[in-house]
Request: fold
Amino acid sequence: MSMTGGAGRGLRRVILGATTAWLLAFTLLPMLIVVAVSLSEPRLGAPPFTPLFEWGAGFWPIFNGHITSYVTIASDSLYVAAFVSSLRIAATSAFITLLIAYPMAYAIARASARARFALLMLVILPFWTSFLIRTYAWTGLLNTNGPINNTLINLGVVSEPLTLLHTEFAVHLGIVYSYLPFMVLPIYAVLERMDWSLIEAAQDLGSRPYRAFVRVTLPLSLPGVFAGWLLVFIPALGEFIIPDLLGGPDTLMLGRVLWTEFFNNRDWPLASALAVVLLMTVLLSALLLVKALQRREAA
Amino acid sequence: MSGRRSVALLSALAFGYAFLYLPIVILIVYSFNDSRLVTVWSHASLRWYAALLENQQMLDAAWLSLRIAAVSATVSVALGTGAAFALQRLKPFFAQRGYEALALMPLIVPEVLIGLAMLLLFVVLGDTIGWPERGATTIALAHASFGMAYATVVIRARLTQLDPALDEAAAILGATPWRTFRRVTLPLLAPAIAAGWLLSFTLSLDDVVVASFVTGPGATTLPIVVFSSVRLGVSPQINALATVIVVLVAVLILTATLMTRPGQRDGRRA
Reply:
């Protein structure tokens, strides 16, 4: 390749040097600082955390790390509950998203080539419009005297307006709504590449459509389902805006608790420790799902 | 496909698209509602759009957001193009896997974590070297940092489709690497670079979480204004603003997609 040989060396050095320096300074270093601050203790002043190393009487600086923040997270029921409900809400939301997205992806994959482009475009378009605004739209819709409650009352379904906003239900709804495109696209990508003659073969051999779907289509589309699951579950875990705008005061999620610790309680070490826990959870989920995906593909 | 099944599929589609679009449509309709009570319809008017035009705080915030988004998107694609090349054509200095992990990390790291990490970096930097001052600069740097990851993915995807033989041909014909890059590779990458820029720009323009962490006194972006307003409840002015944003973005994206569509058809991989 031209860029790796001869006179290309200079250009190669510039590109690699600049991007590597940027990644080290603005991606790796910040993460390391978060870990360092999570081991310090809160104090009044600027910055509001104790230094990790202190020059004492001895020759070497003293390592002044504490695991106080992690102990607090592990022992205080608030943080444990936030951790558990983050996992639970992200998992159930991803599952509901799957239930809505799969039939959509299936229908798009079976549509004519011309319709497909427009249908896909319509799935992607909301992704480009502001996430904040799309979440905000639901605060109006779910209001006690908002359009949904008004419709339900006018239809005689309910007599009293339902409390929809500031509930865990609203958080699920917000996640499903915001991340639906992330589930549709990977499932569609797999279904589109599928060999539909397999289904026809199964049906020719006397398999009922339902059985052909469960035994042939579904297993073949599982990589797409896993990928979609990953793309919904992982961002939902650390979601802040959705639980903050749509959730109730008792809807605890890690992202929201971290925000409160940082902005309201000004406990930077605890916020950092929560960030480390959140990062580990996200990385572990990503790793597990990628492994599952690879095993599927290998099989 | 049997008749009953196509009916089921059609209703799945109809439900899905209604779910995706009804909330936005209702929001747009209510932005033309004259009543101050956002849930009660009185009559159609452009009152809230007029109020929006007179809201100096909102206009200033919008202008600042546009500038930050333009700067960070430009830095993002410059770095993203470099990282895409590094991953696809060059061998990074150190562990290829490590470089890739770092480059793509912001894609899965939650926003609250990016925000906190960037803020802590800026606090430490500010204490040690006195730079950067927290405000528009730190927001742009933080946005460029996560925008780079998205730009890298988009540009790299295109780069994998390009034939390295084109570069080799240019080199054999005597073009210098820089000239090859500028005259051969860059034009072929242009659609992906444009898409990466647009993606970074949109993400920056929409970000409230990271900006809230790293901002300083005086630097209030549009999402920060919108967020603090909607936290207090539904407001008709925000409905009007949301409508403007949604319509602008829809027109922009549709135009961009329709313009690049013929090329997409040619360059598509099987």
